[in-house]
Batch of 2 targets.
Target 1
Amino acid sequence: MPETLTVGNLEAWYGESKVLHGMDFSVRAGEVVTLLGRNGAGKTTTLKAIMGLLDKRSGSIALNGREIIGAAPYDIARKGIAFCPEERGIFASLSVRENLLLPPKVAAGGMTVAQILELFPNLKERLDSQGTKLSGGEQQMLALGRILHTGARILLLDEPTEGLAPVIIRQIGRTITELKTLGFTILLVEQNVGFAAGLADRHYIVELGRIVEEIPGAAFEGRLGSLKSYLGL
Amino acid sequence: MTTILGVPSAVLYGQLLLGLINGAFYAMLSLGLAVIFGMMNIVNFAHGAQYMMGAMGAWFLLNYLGIGYWWALILAPLAVGAIGIVIEMLLLRRLYKLDHLYGMLLTFGLALMVQGMFSDWFGSSGQPYSIPQALMGGNHLGFMFLPNYRAWVIAASVVICLGTWYVVERTKLGAYLRAATENPMLVQAFGIRVPRMITLTYGAGVALAALAGVLAAPIYQVSPLMGADLLIVVFAVVVIGGMGSIMGSILTGFLVGIIEGLTKAFYPEASTTVVFVVMAVVLLIRPAGLFGSKPEAAQGQPQSSLSVPAPSARTQNLIFLTVAACLAAAPIVVYPGFMMKAMIFALFACAFNLVAGYGRLVSFGHAMFLGSAGYVCGHVAKTWGLPPELAILAGTATAAMLGFVSGWLAIRRSGIYFAMVTLAFAQMVYFVALQAPFTGGEDGLQAIPRGMLFGLIDLSRPANLYTFVLAIFLGGFFLIMRLVGSPFGRVLKAISDHDARAQSLGFDTSRYKLVAFTLSAALAGLAGSTKAIVSQIASLTDVHWSMSGEVLLMTFLGGVGTLYGPLVGAFIVVAMQNYLAAFGQWVTVIHGLIFVVCVLAFRRGIVGELIEFWHRRRRAPAATQTVLRKVAVATKE
Amino acid sequence: MTDGAVYALETRGLSREFGGFFAVNSVNFRLARNSMHAVIGPNGAGKTTLFNLLTKYLPPSAGTILHDGHDVTRLSMPAMAKRSVVRSFQISAVFAGLTVRENIELALLPEHGLAWNLLGRISRHRGVLDRADALLGRFGLSEYAETMAGSLSYGRKRVLELATTLALEPKVLLLDEPMAGLGHEDIGRVTQLIREAGRDRTVLLVEHNMNVVAELADTITVMVRGEVLAEGSYAEVSSRADVMAAYTGQAHA
């Protein structure tokens, strides 16, 4: 059965302050969908809310039609959703190899280490270095490779291009395209509009904790004007 | 006979061996503390009690069930570890989002409860536990005699330490642990059950302490307090090494043991204090510890602080006068001896509250100011024959100086480290008091003369004495009240809310902390000096760590950060001691229980909760009115 | 100074390393007196690190910082405040356990000689009270004067923080993402307050909201990957292809 993620009227709080005010969107099987929006709009929070990492959330998150909002974070991961956080979340006290093998397998069919190293050859010689001694680009590849190993088919990627040089960004872009052809379902949070434009099937614009607009990938260029005003560019 | 630097070589090797053995225990205990702290951000104050439970467990197994050493080595840690798991699931779990100090207070309470219960069942004197048959005897190594059991303890502890290191640093399980120490949220998001991992980690850390306890049983006397004193040294070890790395904890533990052993050989007088001197030096040179530290994570919400503005100056003065009148009239109905004792402790608690409540620097060593001031005051009055006012002045000044020096070192760290540093310094003062010639050692100073105040007022007359104590209490309390309400007090509160922001506004925050700490020490010294004159005794009780725990208890029970909380807390605790004295060790258990209940259920303390309650009741009708007004405006439009 | 100009703040070869990664890499940055200067850049560009270095919250790995031409690289945060360089924090930094009025009064203590007054009462000092009243009024906080700062809304906390900072009458005001987390109405208000504050002092702000930057700043520095990419007015900066590329990743830089 193909994977879909449907989010309905999702609200979420950091402590006392409410940051998501009813998000509605869906990601269909095999799609790449982006959440675009300015800083503080609630994009990262949405991913964290899906993973159950916030103090409080309400609404609906359905995975293949099954409600998962009540599940504990570790349980959500085991249902096949993998999360690649902002700033990569590479563990300093773990070697590259340990970082790569850390997330447990949640389903059969995850990539083998050999396949991951084929995808990111840079990591091959660095397997025994400390995780945070890698360059920013290598860390991002490690963060991506780490979740491909688990067998999860839905990937939540939070700003994978942040702070990276253009040549690395292009490489990450190629990787995401390749993952799409391999059938992964991807929800991508981006600030880098150009990067997102070339990849996604659909875009959602997030503002003040809500979806304010949905833009099909094909219509993207024509809407760049209104997009820039949303993003405050 | 060969000597090395004037010390017979046999003595030197013997002390080195002893140092190595002590070091082995420091290493095993600080290792467990580091693992627990890494995962849970809790300094496990019950670690010493759990070590004791291991030793006691072995003793019980042998004497009641006839189960010997080798089985005890497995059974006792399992049982204590299981208890640890229950503690984590029932109690500690509720504290992870709070300030780290609450974890420390709760485990301190648990330690008191456990120690109290065991003292009641077992008596506080030590019991021997014999060395197992297979490890009796020893070998002549040519330069020294090595008892087999000691060799076994060193070997076993090295294996245990390296084994722990291997598991944490080299296995998959260890990778989960390290990752969860850095970022538990993300590890959860990868599908790992972090809460269960935390539970098991605590259980394992606790079991490790119990295992050390079983190993220790044949070497040291098995007694209910064997862990408490050891734990304080281990805290000093932790401050020296930093809780950053497993190997760092192991190395520091052995290193400190060896330094202690060498000191015992070359300069025995300093052997009990050398650890604390090393700690002071490390604080000066490398405040983060030799092996770095896990940086203290952002502190949780300070739940204790009141969300209510302070009352006006007039209201405050009114309350103060009422309290003063009550205290003055109290001897008519209450036994004056009780009142005086309670007022002295209340002053002590209020002084403590000045830094703990308003500066959020929770000291675990305030007994050093109370006790040392008492000794100096007693000495000046008794041996020098000076009048009481000068004796009290001398005691207070001593405490202030001690406060300045220890504070100058301690404020380099904050939060739980500050608590550990102050506790360690207080223990150093305790050992000095135990050994110094003028303190009378175990007996203390007795028959301190009360004398003639200003050469005029005879303090041996009860009414005069009562008035004198009342005046000192009210004076000290008034001073604290003014300090708290002054611009200085405002800055202090601001610093405890947000240190960096206060700095950015131009306040040199460490100077404020130092002044507050010194003032607090001086006022605690005033209480201690007065206590020496009133009770005519200065003894080790007043410098012991349990006294530091008592003042914490009074302040937290009454309401930390409230003006009258410590006063209320002190009266309750002193009353409990007076009226529950017949229950013996159960008083300690009750103290521990109060800590646990306070931390779990009412962190604002009695007075704090009352103030909150009162304000909620007043605010509720006001809120309704606002709503009504809004409705009225809406309907008009 | 060789070129005759003395800057409110100037850095030379300023760097900050975090475990092998240069968050700020050899930056030469000049903050002209009485300018309204914004530092922008995509996430992770090193803006906040630069800001923390300038405000002495972090020590630099290399380089110097000058204030009015004097080397201040080794000074502490309080020492900078005494030189009238004051910063705000990204996560609104109010003293939660004090009332709104008490927060503002706190900032007024040093200039009234009360910073080390141990036994007096602030309520006896008319000067402080009047200044606090004036500031409360100016920032629209009068009706919240007796509210505990911790229970204010997020937007009001930011306003209070700005009021507390301006109570010091700093010559140089450093604002760390003053609009972060604010709603539309609050953004307008805070923009207005910053503009007023900037009339007679130097202001440096790190900000993500480009509308705000365009509206406020006369000079803009664009940072990318720890280095300065461009500097100039909004029109100049926004017309540069490499800047847009850094932001949108569209063109090849």
Target 2
Amino acid sequence: MTAASGFSVLRPATLAEAVAAAAMPGAVPIGGATALQLDWAAGAARPGLLVDLTRCAALSGSGVEPDGGLRIGAAARLAALEHDPHAAAGAPLLLAALRSVAAPPIRTRATLGGNIAGRTGCLIPALLALDAALVLASAAGERTVPLAAWLAAPPAAGEIVVAVLLPKPSPRRVETARKIGRRAAFTPSVIGVAASLDIGPDGRIGAARLAVGGGPNRPRRLAESEALLVGCDVGAADWHALRGALLEEIDAADDGWRSRSYRRRVAAHAIVAGLGGAFPPHPGPLPAGGERGQGRALPVKGVRAEDRAIPLPLAGEGRVRALPEEVEVSHRSLGDRWRIRPDVQAKVEGGFRYLTEHRAPDMLIGRILRAGRPHARIRAIDVGAAEALPGVRAVVTAADVKGENAFGIVVQDQPALAADRVRFAGEPVAALAAVDAATAERALSLIRVDYEDLPVVTDPEAALAEDAPRVHEGGNLLTDLHFVRGDLAGAWEGCAHIVEATYLTPRQMHGFMETEGGFARPELDGGLSVFAGGQYALRDRMQLARILGLPEEKIRVVTSPTGGAFGGKDELTVQPALALLALKSGRPVRLQLDRAESVLSGWKRHPMTIRMRTGCDAAGRLVAQQVDVVADAGAYASLGPGVLETALEHACGPYGIPHVETRGRLVYTNNGLCGAFRGFGANQMTYAIECQIGRLAERAGLDPFEMRRRALRRPGTPGYLGQTVGPSERLDEMLAAAEASALWAAPRGLSGDGAMITGIGFAMNYQGTGLGSIPPDPGGGRLALAPDGKIEAAFGFDEMGQGALAMIQAVVAGALGCDRDDVRPIVGDTALTPESGSTTAARATFVAWKTARTAGPALAADLVAAAALRLGRDPADLAVAPGGIRDRRANDAAPLIGFAELAASLDPLPQASAAFEFPKTDYTRGNARFLFISGATLARVAIDRVTGMVRVTDIEQHAAAGPIVDPAGYLGQIEGGAVQGLGFTLTEDMRTSGGVFLEKNLDQYLMPSIADAPERMTTFALEDLDPGDPFGPRGVGELGIGAVTPAIAAAIADATGLWPATTPIAPEAVLDALEGAG
Amino acid sequence: MNETVRFTLNGADAVFDGPAGTTLLDLLREEHGLMAAKPGCGIGRCGACLVLVDGAPANACLVMAFQLDGAAVVSAEGLDRLPVAAAIRAALVDENAFQCGYCAPGFTVALAALFTADRDADEAAIRAALEGNLCRCTGYHSILRGALAAAARLREAPSP
């Protein structure tokens, strides 16, 4: 909802007009204008006059000049150049570089001149290597200047780029161009390189043009390195000397994402390798390609030879070794069970409506004023000017909060609108509603807040100090958890191997594609309806009632459908502002955060520092473990205490360790907000514990499977906290499945061309489901025959994309015997749906299944009885069937009476409900889970020897979570979780400085693109349950993300010997490991 | 400043008279009620607002009104005009390619542009064409399977 800026536009048709326009005061010449929104978002001044050069004939076209050179008009679109025959023939290097610029939909608009004019464009290194010249025009006339010289001089005002001239290429050349980024595609440039060598008939290098540039790096030729090459035989160039010269000569920027020295190194490596020279040196022998991984012990410092000589008592003996009966979860292999989800067609066609997309003629536009500073006292808020602006219908501040100005799922420590203090930069201070977006934006700028800045608390460890500034009056320590079992101090004595490491995990952003938003509407009865994407409508209603001072029954909350959540919409987001504005204005109000505001104000994953010390005996049996976690809570609690508790509950993974001590502290800071996020602390801890086991396996000289076989908990034994756990544990089976995997036997080591080193890793996955033994964890639902003959299945949980609707149809149809299309799911609406609990913790599948199993037979009996009465038949002869009620014994499945006809004859219509608690364990000294699901994840990586960047080529997941309810939903959760986990592992971190996020939008915060997704992903499911297991299908929403990180880490260790302990994993650290500098 | 621009939208003549900097995304959603193009980032980095401008995929959040004069705009709602659209949509549906679906129209537009230009696009070409579209739910493989299934359908179907 960008308010249009008030510039004028000129569209010159001739060069003279273009030059005249560009010379006008404040004029900004533009090509495709694809960077303008980015620049404006970054704070660039909005121009008064844009000069659109794309309609100027003199700047278009390309062709071969009389001297054989190539002339390309500056207004040429990059995508068009990709298919330009002249460019293909005369400048293949440029074509290669073009494909690394932004992404296809940008290249259809962006122009060559635009890429050059900003001096940061990704094409400049290639153009320098091609010895390009620019034709420039200004009021002073036209001139032609070598690109290198133009770059060296300050920009000339009013001068426009008319064309690019590329000299006729030498018939024999060696060329390379490469952009190094932060992810595989559509990435900001870390550094770009290009090189072109003209080779004479004698094989000697006649001319050498080497260049760097891109992004923050000053684009330039590398004259000294070039001089080293000229005159050399191209087949006998001294690549070692060239690398040294390049490292000396290349200057690069340091913008915090990658260091200057990293950029230098990768640029030098890329030029040398690209020209056919050697890859960077590697200490010792490279791992040979194609080695079978089984039992491969990497050389690790400090392993005593005698450790391996000790005979190993095989604790694994007698455990299940037979391969489990898994199915591959795919459309191909489960074709007869594959169903199309009910909402996907409308989504593909674009007709599906989200809650942010409702429009009504009298709807106002809401906006929220954010603090913009991480920690401050509010001295005064003056909304007078905003209120006085015509078109503004309501402005609300803390003074308008009639109830408690405090919310939070666990602790109510967060104001709906800040009253006297702000604790994070995105904190809402005021909100307003106006008749249109432009008025709302203008009014927002008229609100005056007088702040007194307070010391900013940024480091959770420092925040624990007695004299640290306080984020909340009660101190910064929000949660402190401690658990001890056995005798840790004595236990270390018995350890033959001890590994100790500190794991750092990132502030990951949920990155749901639909940002927070929706609308609220006052109702005629004095009540209020709030429609905003969420994960638990009843709880949102309870929290809103508390804030608004209204009875809950006066509020309707609708939370579905929503465009992704992943935990990030579990807590309230924009609902309080929407509700306050609708009540004060008496009008419907809509609001959707733009991405920058969502980034600033939204929930994130808790960054954790996990110190872990783990020991095993000489036989590889785990003996002792000590864990200390410090987690950044951000400014308010939300579900943070639960996240920390869950992390600690998974501190030993699926392993039995007799002597343990865990401590966890959750600490308030001014670093934005942290809350629920898929995995809920368990995936961070799984990363740490699985890496510890992998390291110990190396020390003990065991392969990773044997190490785990000796350590896995035994089914039926108490859980980590001593609690009773549920049946159908499948850890041994998951281990066996991973060990037998074809992926584990895939080639590893050096790739054929020497450019990559591949490695394969594996990790176990063990995840509790449900909220645990302490918090209320209600489940339930309602099944009813609707007047139109549909079986309505109403649940209070939400459709966030995960496939709740298809899942409901499957379980209800399965329980009743009707068709899935007979079932109409209704979700996430306090007016229509009953208590089902939250849409979190992989619990909805169980809740729906249990409801269908409980209420289904009752409804079926009612339907059959009603039909029997109507048909004059014995109910015992009838059964529910697709479409209606059929004769139980007839071969013909056609119903004797359809559901619609049956419904028309009934008043009241039959319905049946269920209400129950999610299965809980007996342990209440701490929060403990009862139902755990198991899995195993394998990852194969290819590590680029030039950049140290990790590309995940394969992910194979094995999951044991009971029967698959809906194959597409199951597969989607596992695959989607995997790639979200891949982002956590390789590219995603919301970094902070002084309590301010450094990443503002999706140009800097890099979620995986399709180019980062693995080449192959395979998912297997083990569906069986123990005989008599009453708990049915478990949800897999959190399983997919669970063990991806440690599997990738183990694969990197396999390839390089480095166990990365910080995610996202820095390519520089991997490069260091490859080059032996670590 | 206000501009008057004439263009076609899903085949019909359209006129816009308003601020030159109004984005095509706002124009589609708020002036024409066409909601398939979604606001995802506002800076051309997610592809949720992809539309076709003169047949080429473009981020509607980056295209401003003044750039539309004389252009032919096709939004996801108007893809029926392209002979490849039916096969692409059907294949994406069959593979349950999307979850929350907020990115779905953008991906569909990108694929429609790709297959219109090259019916024989292979997996590498499909991946390259989708580099400008982010999806957070699926991990991309269901979309890729849908696109490959679409390619197979298009190979079997007679060329228009």
